[in-house]
Write a structure and sequence with these properties.
Number of domains: 2
Distance between the termini: 34 Å
InterPro entries: UTP_pyrophosphatase-like, YgjP-like_metallopeptidase
CATH superfamily of the largest domain: Metalloproteases ("zincins"), catalytic domain
CATH architecture of the largest domain: 2-Layer Sandwich
Structural class: alpha/beta
Number of strands: 6
CATH class of the largest domain: Alpha Beta
Radius of gyration: 21 Å
Protein name: M48 family peptidase
Order of helices and strands: EEEHHEEEHHH
Pfam family, one: YgjP-like
Organism: Streptomyces palmae
Shape: elongated
Length: 187
């Protein structure tokens, strides 16, 4: 997930003659792309860019849990699914985990979650956090470990979601289609 826009971040405005009324925006790498109708004035463009940057920032901040909120979330999940037995000393987001979703050091009571989870559904983030909490109680992935996760109703769904993300990452990337690429006759 991208950070909210800061002064100086790249914003690309794409005008389309096919777009009549709608305005949309999304993150593309290190830039924000705002799609607007071609007939829009420069003043309207500036206003809509501001509106759309604000909307994207609000969406992204709603999806993000801070480290303090993570420890609270961990306590709730431990209480609900592990009888409160797992009590981490720290839970935090990290940016250096690109092949793992999370990690745990039981001796220190520390849990680290990959920043890549931040844009994923809540039940997936909860599963990974619960998985790491279970490691505070059982270090390996044996039967006793998996028994601890049986009570979480979305374990299989979350694991399938994460497997899909990994598989999708192996697919070749297709060039993004642009409104401008299609001619007025649809070719």
């Amino acid at each position: 997930m991208s950070d909210p826009p800061r002064a100086g971040d790249a914003v690309e405005v794409r005008r389309s003659s096919r777009r009549r009324r709608t305005v949309s925006a999304y993150r593309e790498g290190d830039r924000t792309v705002v799609l607007i109708p071609a007939r829009m004035s420069k003043a309207e463009e500036r206003r809509w860019v501001g509106v759309m940057l604000g909307k994207l920032a609000a969406q992204e901040s709603r999806r993000r849990l801070g480290d303090g909120e993570l420890i609270e979330r961990a306590a709730r999940l431990s209480a609900q699914y592990l009888g409160g037995a797992a009590r981490p000393a720290t839970v935090r987001w990290v940016t250096n985990q690109n092949t793992r979703w999370g990690s745990c050091t039981p001796a220190e009571g520390s849990i680290r979650l990959s920043h890549r989870l931040q844009g994923m559904p809540e039940y997936v983030r909860d599963y990974v956090l619960l998985h790491e909490l279970a490691h505070l109680l059982v270090p390996g992935h044996g039967p006793n470990f998996w028994r601890l996760l049986e009570s979480y109703p979305r374990t299989e769904r979350a694991r399938g979601y994460l497997e899909g993300v990994v598989a999708a990452g192996r697919l070749p990337r297709l060039p993004a289609a642009r409104d401008e690429d299609a001619g007025s006759d649809g070719q």
